[in-house]
Write a structure and sequence with these properties.
Helix content: 40-55%
Radius of gyration: 25 Å
Oligomer: single chain
Number of strands: 10
Strand order of the largest sheet: 1-10-2-9-6-3
Number of domains: 2
Strand content: 5-15%
Length: about 375
């Protein structure tokens, strides 16, 4: 059976292999990455920049639907030669000799005339008549045609490129590969872990009634996607300061309740009302989270919550906050007091899959000891 989809990291890995321009300007293939909204296609450019650094390439983002001819190039009369000369737009950084990695974002939403202009970049690695530096890489992104968002390409043009269908990440993939490495709020990570259907796809079986996600047949602008869920994190981080009291006599309970109302309203406008409404239960659990300072300073006596989801929140906090071998060793004493091996294993696994924690996990004697004693469940 042929797998018709690829994961984002697989795509980021193969783009340079198939798209890099060769000296004879032949042999390269231009990939166009397609997926449903908010799945992280645009972040591939950042992933490539992190992989190759700034010394080797210039990295260029082009928002295709809003560009016109003058953004790409212009023809200007040369009075001496009495000919028209092409001048390239500054956004393409052709004043630099370095090869380019160019993302033509939302390429299939470009006006037809602009698609014709971008086609020379896609197929011939040139901007007008000016060739890109040897070794340049060009790729594009767009949404799926069936979603009705204005994405289209003529068949003979599609036959000249490589159309890649990017699969939406699962909740666990998003948590492990992205959220744990990008300071996403622990409450939000815990909610996603407990509500994995927030990362389901409308293409999956049995998702017609999923109220969280995007459905092409429904009129909706606010829904849960990897992009919109990540945006909610900033709101939760600031949930204690969203409301401005109207009087100095206003009670703490009133301020707290108003902060909560504003947060849920903002969330509903970002990830949808269903997500925001179900997040209320997670907000209620926040009061049961032990103080972080107590956990680190008194790991053998600090309160261990009875609720498993609250225990998960503490684990996510730890991945974000631990900053020394001593703190890791202290926290491991707390971890060992948690009565659920699943939660202990969750923290152990995150330690090795999170960039900032991996440097501690590989050399910490207490983590090594836990792994040895529990290798039967790993």
């Amino acid at each position: 059976m042929i797998h018709k989809t690829m994961k984002i990291r697989e795509i980021a890995h193969v783009i340079p292999m198939i798209s890099q321009q060769e000296k004879d300007n032949e042999g390269h293939i231009t990939p166009i990455i397609k997926s449903e909204p908010g799945c992280g296609k645009t972040s591939i450019l950042k992933m490539l920049q992190e992989e190759y650094g700034d010394d080797k390439y210039d990295y260029i983002y082009a928002d295709c639907p809003v560009l016109d001819y003058s953004d790409v190039m212009m023809t200007i009369p040369d009075k001496d030669t009495k000919q028209l000369q092409q001048y390239i737009g500054s956004m393409w950084r052709m004043d630099s000799p370095k090869p380019k990695i160019i993302l033509l974002d939302e390429f299939m939403k470009s006006p037809k005339m602009m698609q014709l202009i971008f086609n020379r970049m896609l197929l011939e690695r040139s901007i007008g008549d000016t060739p890109l530096p040897v070794g340049s890489i060009v790729f594009g992104t767009s949404n799926n045609e069936e979603e009705g968002l204005g994405d289209s390409m003529l068949s003979h043009e599609g036959n000249r490129v490589c159309l890649i269908q990017m699969i939406k990440p699962t909740a666990d993939e998003w948590l492990e590969d992205w959220a744990n490495n990008n300071n996403i709020n622990p409450l939000l990570k815990s909610f996603v872990k407990s509500h994995t259907s927030t990362f389901a796809s409308y293409k999956d079986e049995g998702q017609k009634e999923n109220a969280y996600i995007y459905h092409p047949q429904k009129a909706q602008m606010s829904f849960a996607s990897p992009r919109s869920i990540a945006k909610v994190s900033r709101m939760i981080d600031r949930m204690d300061t969203l409301y401005q009291p109207t009087s100095s006599k206003e009670s703490d309970d009133s301020i707290k309740e108003n902060n909560r109302k504003i947060l849920l309203s903002l969330m509903a406008g970002t990830v949808g009302a269903s997500f925001a409404g179900d997040f209320v239960t997670t907000l209620d659990m926040a009061e049961d989270i032990p103080k972080w300072e107590d956990v680190i300073n008194n790991p053998e006596t600090a309160t261990v919550p009875d609720n498993i989801q609250v225990q998960m929140i503490v684990m996510y906090q730890a991945v974000d906050r631990l900053k020394s071998h001593d703190e890791v060793s202290s926290f491991m004493k707390y971890v060992c007091r948690i009565p659920h091996k699943e939660i202990q294993t969750m923290f152990f696994t995150m330690c090795f899959k999170t960039k900032r924690m991996a440097k501690y996990a590989g050399r910490n004697i207490d983590i090594a000891k836990w792994g040895t004693e529990n290798n039967y469940i790993l």
